[in-house]
Amino acid sequence: MAEDITDVVENVTTHMDLLRFATAGSVDDGKSTLIGRLLLDSKSIFEDQLEAVETTSKGKGYDYTDLALLTDGLRSEREQGITIDVAYRYFATPKRKFIIADTPGHVQYTRNMVTGASTADLGLVLVDARQGLTEQSRRHAVILSLLRVPHLVLAVNKMDLVDYSEEVFTKIHDEFTQFATKLSIPDLTVIPISALAGDNVVNRSEAMSWYSGPTLLHHLENVHVASDRDLIDARFPVQYVVRPKSDEFHDYRGYAGQVAGGVMKPGDEVVVLPSGMTSKIAGIDLFDQEITEAYPPMSVTVRLEDDVDVSRGDMIARVKNAPSPSQDIDAMVCWMTTTPLKNRQKLAIKHTTRTARAMVKDIQYRLDVNTLHRDQEAGELGVNEIGRVQLRTTVPLLSDSYSKNRTTGSFILIDEGTGVTVGAGMIL
Ligand SMILES: Nc1nc2c(ncn2[C@@H]2O[C@H](COP(=O)(O)OP(=O)(O)OP(=O)(O)O)[C@@H](O)[C@H]2O)c(=O)[nH]1
Questions:
Q1: Which of 26, 29, 32, 33 to mutate to test the pocket of ligand 1 (most atoms within 8 A of CB)?
Q2: Per-residue pLDDT tens digits for 20-76
Q3: Would you state the CATH architecture of domain 325-427?
Q4: Model confidence over 153-169: pLDDT tens digits?
Q5: Which of 148, 273, 303, 352 qualifies as a FRET site for 407, CA 20 to 30 Å off?
Q6: Measuring from atom 27 of ligand 1, which residue has the nearest CA?
Q7: Is the ipTM value over 0.90, yes or no?
Q8: Between 2.40.30.10, 2.60.15.10, 3.30.1360.170, 3.40.50.300, what CATH number should domain 235-318 receive?
């Protein structure tokens, strides 16, 4: 269900403004309450859902409406029958559409965060104002910076429980800003909120008149994400070759996929990798119409002027700006399964639309995400651990560094026996 919604939103909103954000926080920091508040105050929920939550809250003897029930209710619906690491929630305001990647339950699991945040435009870290920064908040910030999530919001929650004190907020703000200088976080915003009372979530807080920054929703609606995407380096991994069988289209041959980088236009000189054959873009099709340009994350079909040999897993790029094929991959890998990753281990690797086999040549170090210490003696990676790994693949991959392109710079590792995803990698 969650995936369906994501797909639909992705298709329908190709040209609409969309912000994907991932939430993180320790248990009880108020993540569910905050998401409930966002949905409620931005009028994204149905009356009957609210009534049900009000009734349940009264039934439990609360004198307030427990908004977490709203989120948790949605969450349990999603969890029925399947183990889900990340629940995706969708809401919209007149300004923007939002997809929230919400990691349920105990969020200490690195892999849940990696899954949820790898495609996020913005990471939202929650802290409890009474507790201030914890090891967990630092850890989440480190992971978000490793994943190159371009925007980070630290929401200092439960301000109502510290008398809306400016002093408490400033202390947390300064401590976090100081810590963030050690990480690569291009854009950081710190907002004092009360998810339960509604301060600075959608509506401006009267109790915190000392705060002059944006409310959380205002920030989410206005944060500038268009320029985060790589619009310079054209990258088009071919998903499949379109050759309709009917007579009417018997000459049609197109290559379908999602633009991973750059802007592509008819007339562009392109190279097909790994063959190295060159051609020009004859046209670009979107559903049943022709378009004049395509850019990330549009899903389109590209036609070429020449009858070159193109198949699934190939990459179309510009002649003078193409990734160089390589079988040696140097990457940060997040390991996601209980059997540790070891030297010489063989795995399947999926990179854009290409699948190959890979062998672990070296586990160079394990990164302690709390202290940023690099342990070079580690020799293996356990579940939820992140480390620098050298891989050798059976066929060349057409990759970029993750810092340049989050799509062509990432891959997943798959256990060949079970088909289960056991690792996620970011190419250095
Ligand atoms: N006073 C006050 N209580 C809050 C606030 N936000 C959340 N709470 C309370 O804190 C408790 C935890 O909130 P949740 O939203 O369930 O916390 P969570 O982080 O989502 O927890 P998990 O869903 O288990 O990950 C609940 O009792 C909330 O009512 C706030 O701004 N002020």
A1: 33
A2: 999 888 778 898 899 889 888 887 665 566 677 777 777 777 777 777 766 665 555
A3: Beta Barrel (2.40)
A4: 999 999 999 999 999 99
A5: 303
A6: 28
A7: yes
A8: 2.40.30.10
